[in-house]
Amino acid sequence: MGTFAWAKGHGTENDFIVLPDADTRIHGDLDADFVAELCDRRRGVGADGVLRVVRSTALGINDGSTWFMDYRNADGTVSEMCGNGVRVFAAYLVREGLVDPAEPEPVSTRDGVKTVAFEPDGRYTVDMGVPRTLGDTKVAVGERTWSAMHVETGNPHAVAFVDDLADAGTLVDEPAYDRAEYPNGVNIEFVVPRGEGYVAMRVHERGSGETRSCGTGACAVAVAAAVRDGAAPAATNAPATYRIDLPGGRLDVTWRPDGRLLMTGSAAIVADGELSWHGG
Ligand SMILES: N[C@@H](CCC[C@H](N)C(=O)O)C(=O)O
Questions:
Q1: Is 76 in the pocket of ligand 1 (CB under 6 A)?
Q2: Predicted pLDDT at 242
Q3: How much is the mean pLDDT over the chain?
Q4: 100, 244 in Cβ contact below 8 A?
Q5: Which residue ranges run through the membrane (predicted)?
Q6: What is residue 280's predicted lDDT score, i.e. its pLDDT?
């Protein structure tokens, strides 16, 4: 692997290495071992994941987008979507002058197009689409087991309400979950209510371990909280809005009566460079 440009960014401290690769000529298919080494916090640069910036047409994608977000977890695995990642991706596009922040930008992902709007306060609002609720499941840490709700927000989640966020322990190891229910793995959220329309959460992400924030996870938590609170828009015909505190910051999620989720949060590009990669 030779020399290439990169940037570092984060959305509520969920951090990413951004790899510009408009025409796919620099990184090709992006090797999983390379991603894992790059994301390793001791052997590599360190990040929760990689966002490769590819022109949609270079991949034959014709969905109204100009840019495709090729997201990879820290262990090199592919996921369908990354909610914090898509805000950081949009921040990178704006910073590079590749999109006009006066207009919402449709970004192509493996879970379809996610449109990002640029808010006057500098935050980003993502139309995260329509979630799916798939009933109850169980998650466990050590001897403790909790009932959880299976929610899909482009990727799979299990949302468990707990008495105290510390109940989830260190989250160094992946919590146990129903492997028949989630054959491709799962992101697991632990949640405590903080007040009306207000919760706090921790997350163990598939492929990345405990992270300081997860956008798709916050959306899954908003859905589970709304169902639990009897505030689901399908029942009330009114939007359900939740403030969600995560270790890395705050996300605001609204579940609209048309079924769509809107997530608002910050994103920042914090470093740029050219990397001569000698890893391995
Ligand atoms: N941190 C992301 C989610 C990234 C993907 C996830 N680990 C998976 O494998 O599904 C977010 O902000 O949504």
A1: no
A2: 99
A3: 97
A4: no
A5: none
A6: 65
- Assess whether the C-beta atom of 109 lies below 6 angstroms from ligand 1: no
Residue whose C-alpha is closest to residue 6's, from 36, 45, 32, 33: 45
Please count the CA atoms within 13 angstroms of the CA of 121 that sit on its side-chain side: 6
ipTM value greater than 0.90: yes
- Distance from CA of residue 81 to its chain's centroid? 6
Question: Which atom of ligand 1 is closest in space to residue 208's alpha carbon?
Answer: 7
Residue keyed to tokens 């298919």: 29
For the annotated binding site for substrate, the residues are: 14, 73, 83-84, 155, 187, 205-206, 215-216
| Integer angstrom CA distances of residue 229 from 73, 130, 225, 233, 250 | 32, 19, 6, 11, 20
Does the beta carbon of 73 sit less than 6 angstroms from any atom of ligand 1? yes
Q: Scan for tokens 């790899």, then name that residue.
A: 19
Q: How confident is the model at residue 1 (pLDDT cuts 50, 70, 90)?
A: low
- Give the whole-angstrom CA distance, residue 250 versus residue 165: 16
Which residue, judged by its Cα, is nearest atom 4 of ligand 1?
A: 82
d(CA 207, CA 213) in angstroms, rounded, equals 14
Structural domains in the chain, sorted by start? 3-118+267-276 (3.10.310.10), 132-259 (3.10.310.10)
